[in-house]
Amino acid sequence: MSHPHREIRPFASSPLPRHIAIIMDGNGRWARRRGKPRIFGHRAGAEALRRTAEACAEWGISHLTLYAFSTENWRRPEGEVRALLALLRRYLQESVADLRRRGVRLRFIGDVQRFSPALRKRMEEVAAALGGNRGLQIILALNYGGRDEIVRACRALARLAAAGEIAADDISEELFARHLDTADVPDPDLVIRTAGEMRLSNFLLWQTAYAEYYSSPVCWPDFNRLELAAAIRAFQMRTRKFGGLASPL
Ligand code: FPP
């Protein structure tokens, strides 16, 4: 007989990825296969997001970044953009109590200036309400593009240089990273993309220099703890070398 209570988890014997970053893909395909509108898939995707965050919080993952809206997503039909932003608003409204209980913190990366003042205010309030938590940090990438983030960091450094506060030679990898949206966030160890796709699509270009990549065959609305555990286990079985040699056991 199987043991329904013994769920699949990451291996207990090897370290967990500290930071998991996910490109949530396949909402549209998932909906189309069911003869439903795309937004139906996004709605189910928001549930998958909840499930995934829950598992990460429970297993002791420290950071989870989710690519929720890219700088390119504005090109989608207006109705779909509006529906995605409405889902975000609803998530921010409905999840605070649950996130607080689970010890989760929330942070945003991306150029949020593009969003309405009301939505930005809501984002700030939720982040502040969860600021005291010490568990999983969820990072939502919103109006996020890796190249855009790098350009914005360059502008910030150029302004400091023009003001005479830094010299050109002061710019190091560390200083540069401190001007990215992800300042103080450890680089992702594991990047997961769903729906079988194998592209980075402008996601965390700087930060994923040494990340392990995992492509999950399921569409994002079907992603669950089993799939997450499979991705983490695959990560745990790899040897990371960071350009050096594998250390002998
Ligand atoms: C990709 O699927 C998914 C997105 C562009 C948006 C991700 C958004 C969510 C999961 C919704 C909820 C967000 C929050 C913050 C609650 P796709 O539409 O590109 O799928 P397709 O490639 O199959 O068309």
Question: Can you offer a commentary on this structure?
Answer:
- The chain is an alpha/beta fold and 249 residues long.
- Helix content is 41%, strand content 14%.
- It contains 7 helices and 6 strands, in the order βααβαβαβααββα.
- The protein has helices spanning 27-33, 38-59, 78-101, 117-129, 146-162, 173-178, 225-236, and strands at 19-23, 63-70, 105-109, 137-144, 190-193, 212-215.
- A 6-stranded parallel β-sheet has the order 3-4-2-1-5-6, with helices on both faces.
- Strand 3, helix 4 and strand 4 form a beta-alpha-beta unit.
- The longest helix is centred in the middle third of the chain and has 24 residues, at 78-101.
- The protein binds farnesyl diphosphate.
- The site of farnesyl diphosphate has 19 residues, from helix 1, helix 2 and helix 3.
- Farnesyl diphosphate (FPP) binds at residues 24-29, 38, 42, 45-46, 49, 68, 73, 87-88, 91, 140, 195, 220.
Keywords:
single chain, 249 residues, alpha/beta, 7 helices, binds farnesyl diphosphate
